[in-house]
Design goal:
- The chain is built from 3 helices and 19 strands.
- The protein is mainly β and 350 residues long.
- This is Synaptotagmin-like protein 2.
- InterPro entries: C2_dom, C2_domain_sf, SYTL1-5_C2B.
Length: 350
């Protein structure tokens, strides 16, 4: 089912400690979460066209003039808005988020009747570098309509805190569909595709050689879509896993690193044993995605699978904060023993 697998024991003080194959690393988050994408980013009529094509641009910061510069070069293979006339009138718009004022908005000129517009324009922001580094750049492409019902053609969002500022070259980026979470003011960080399964103790029968003496939770991390673009080449990502409240080295598991890909496929299975059925009400599986670098790793987003009650074994904890989707996913696993439950869950700030 997967090309990599690991097994580890779920353990608290009241559980017997068993050997595990867990590894440990001293990853530290160096990027503070920035949320607050605003409706004005998406002002206009989205229309019925699907996002397609690519955009070429470069980023630079002029230290002398304290100016952030977005060099918008061109777009290729944009969607056609007016199919009857076979035309689109595209322009590029940028925002610095979470700036909620129109001061953060810049636009290029409109290019008429083309799906391959050439701009060669520089969009400029007078801003201090330290302030810039807690922002995100949202770059989107739109069809200009004389009546104001502009149509969305695609976008890309870049976390400027982790951008490689030594790279000033023009690079091509695929345009992505609009993020509904961003429209609703939620920080969009990507979506994780995974399956989970609970195997109760002794549930497979005496004749089964793999019948577990204690319960097991199986976590199959399949892939992640639409991770934040941290550099022109993409992102070097991996997934970390803990079963809270156990944060020991033996609880820690991680996948391999997938390089230069904002849509990484991990196909990695983790098995935690030592579970009793009643533990499922008090435990929480935390899966976090990180960008791997030599000196430090950057947090990209995560999910927490549990009942979201705010309590663990009668103690108030801030990590028992699962969303409605995450709670429903966990409850479905609890009610369907020995069955894989598949889900697609949005990553979030934790």
């Amino acid at each position: 089912e997967s090309d990599t697998a690991s097994e580890i024991s779920f353990q608290f003080n009241k559980h017997k400690k068993t050997p595990s194959t867990g590894s440990h690393s001293s990853d530290m988050a160096s990027v503070s979460s920035v949320s607050g994408s605003v409706l004005s980013v998406y002002s206009g009529d989205f229309g019925s066209v699907d996002a397609q094509g690519t955009v070429e641009f470069a980023l630079d910061y002029d230290e002398k003039n304290r100016e952030f510069q977005v060099h918008v070069s061109q777009c290729r293979d944009l969607a056609v808005v007016d199919e009857k006339k076979g035309r689109s009138d595209p322009y590029v718009k940028t925002y610095l988020l979470p700036d909620k004022a129109r001061m953060g908005k810049r636009k290029t000129s409109v290019k008429k009747r083309t799906v391959n517009p050439i701009y060669n324009e520089v969009l400029r922001y007078k801003i201090e570098k330290m302030v810039l580094l807690i922002q995100k750049l949202n770059l989107s492409v739109w069809h200009n309509d004389p009546l104001g019902r502009n149509s969305f053609l695609g976008e890309i969002e870049i976390d400027l805190a982790s951008w490689d500022w030594s790279n000033r070259k023009l690079n091509w980026y695929p345009l992505k569909p609009r993020s509904l979470s961003a429209v609703n003011g939620v920080d969009h960080r990507g979506v994780m595709n995974l399956s989970i399964k609970y195997v109760p103790p002794g549930s497979l029968g005496k004749m089964c050689p793999k019948n577990p003496p204690s319960g097991e939770v199986h976590i199959w991390v399949k892939d992640v879509k639409d991770l934040l673009q941290l550099r022109p080449s993409g992102v070097d990502s991996f997934v970390k896993c803990y079963v809270l409240p156990d944060t020991s080295k033996k609880s820690y598991q991680k996948t391999r690193v997938i390089k230069r890909d904002t849509n990484p496929v991990f196909n990695h299975t983790i098995v935690y044993d030592g579970f009793h059925t009643e533990d499922l009400k008090d435990a929480c599986v935390e899966l976090t995605v990180w960008d791997h670098e030599k000196l430090t790793n950057h947090f990209l987003g995560g999910i927490r699978l549990g009942l979201g009650t705010g309590l663990s074994y009668g103690i108030s904890v801030d990590w028992m904060d699962s969303t409605q989707e995450e709670v429903a996913f966990w409850q479905e696993m609890m009610s369907a023993a020995n069955e894989w439950i598949e889900g697609l869950l949005p990553l979030r700030s934790l």
